[in-house]
Design a protein that fits this description.
mainly alpha, Methane Monooxygenase Hydroxylase, Chain G, domain 1, 2 domains, transmembrane helix
């Protein structure tokens, strides 16, 4: 009986441990869903209003009794992103034209039925592909052909349906000129988050080197590898911000600042890659009990200081000067250090120098000027 009671006690303990964890995960999941909804409220309202306005215009102004394609085209053209909206409108209108034309032609001569649906959808999508259509236009052609053949078999109504789709596209473009300010603010905040995460990774790596703590450097390496997803979010946010300032006349005054943030993506990508190699080599040195020069943790901390100053400069431009000074001093200091013994130490020193150049570019310094601020070494260490 005792083993059974012990097993039951263990099960109760396991249940008591799992229940709070499950509750925390559930609450976190709900928060993420609510946050996602909050981020998309503007787009949902925009799509809903555009759908209603386009239907009303097609029905009351143009005089079409059931303008089904007008709200559909408006919603598809707007989508949930500001990027490529002009292309989406064009693809929707062409896709609808192809689908409706092919569908009407077959309904007129062959009626409706299973064979007709199969043939019409295949033909409409094939025609769209031959016209050089993308995925959206090809799908629209097939969908509209199927609708015309099944739900709305009304020969001769092809032009009115295409006109409804064009009207929906025009309404979508008009609605797209009203853009939220969040799409402009988000790239800057995302870039700041990436830079602060890189600074934290460098500090954690420095601590791990100083104390030779394998857990610290392992965690830093994990975070460095995960930083790529943050850069992807920045790239997406920057593209959307650029699309907003190009499309919306009410936001064009922000074009210069938004483009500056978008221009950070390439040098920031290089910095992330170099820091990832740097952290991996530091982790290897700790795992293998390789001795690093005592000065290296301090170099990583100064690199983190420069990274944080760049993040601050996104909101306070004067911080650029301080970041430039800190990184320049670090670059000159690395040129005076003796060539270390051991592969890991040599690699880390080289990656620090390369990362300094990447970060200097983020301050607005050109690549050639950044290289001059990291003087050439005389001991044969590879330069970037």
């Amino acid at each position: 009986m005792d083993p059974v009671r012990l097993t039951l006690d263990q099960l109760r303990e396991l249940r008591d441990d799992i229940a709070p964890q499950a509750a925390r995960r559930s609450r976190a999941s709900v928060r993420r869903r609510v946050d996602r909804l909050r981020e998309r409220v503007f787009f949902i309202a925009q799509c809903a209003l555009a759908a209603g306005v386009s239907w009303a215009l097609a029905h009351y102004v143009v005089g079409h009794p059931t303008p089904f394609f007008a709200p559909v085209a408006a919603m598809v053209a707007l989508g949930f992103s500001f990027g490529q909206r002009l292309r989406r409108v064009a693809e929707v209108m062409v896709g609808v034209a192809v689908g409706v034309g092919v569908g009407d032609l077959f309904v007129r001569f062959f009626g409706t039925g299973v064979p007709q649906i199969i043939f019409v959808v295949a033909l409409a999508m094939s025609v769209a592909v031959l016209l050089g259509a993308g995925t959206l236009m090809t799908t629209q052609a097939g969908v509209q052909a199927a609708i015309v053949t099944t739900l709305l078999p009304n020969p001769g109504a092809g032009f009115s349906r295409w006109l409804d789709a064009a009207l929906g596209g025009v309404v979508a473009l008009a609605a797209a000129t009203i853009a939220p300010a969040a799409a402009i603010r988000r790239p800057r905040q995302q870039a700041s988050d990436v830079l602060h995460e890189l600074a934290a990774i460098l500090v954690e790596t420095a601590d791990g080197l100083r104390t030779e703590n394998a857990d610290d450097v392992t965690d830093a390496l994990r975070r460095a590898r995960s930083s790529e997803s943050m850069l992807d979010d920045l790239r997406s946010a920057a593209s959307e911000g650029v699309a907003v300032v190009r499309l919306s006349p009410f936001r064009r005054r922000h074009r210069g600042r938004v483009q500056q943030i978008a221009d950070l993506v390439v040098p920031l990508d290089r910095a992330i890659r170099n820091i990832r190699v740097l952290v991996r080599r530091c982790a290897v040195s700790v795992w293998r009990d390789e001795r690093m020069p005592d000065e290296y943790p301090m170099l990583l901390e100064r690199l983190a200081d420069g990274t944080r100053l760049i993040a601050e400069s996104l909101f306070e431009p004067a911080a650029d000067v301080a970041a430039h000074r800190v990184l320049g001093e670090l670059g000159r200091r690395t040129a005076k250090l003796p060539l270390p013994h051991g592969l890991s130490a040599v690699v880390v020193l080289g990656q620090i120098r390369s990362t300094v150049i990447d970060l200097l570019e983020l301050t607005g310094t050109s690549y050639d000027e950044a290289r001059k601020l990291v003087p050439l070494r005389l001991d044969g260490l590879d330069e970037k």
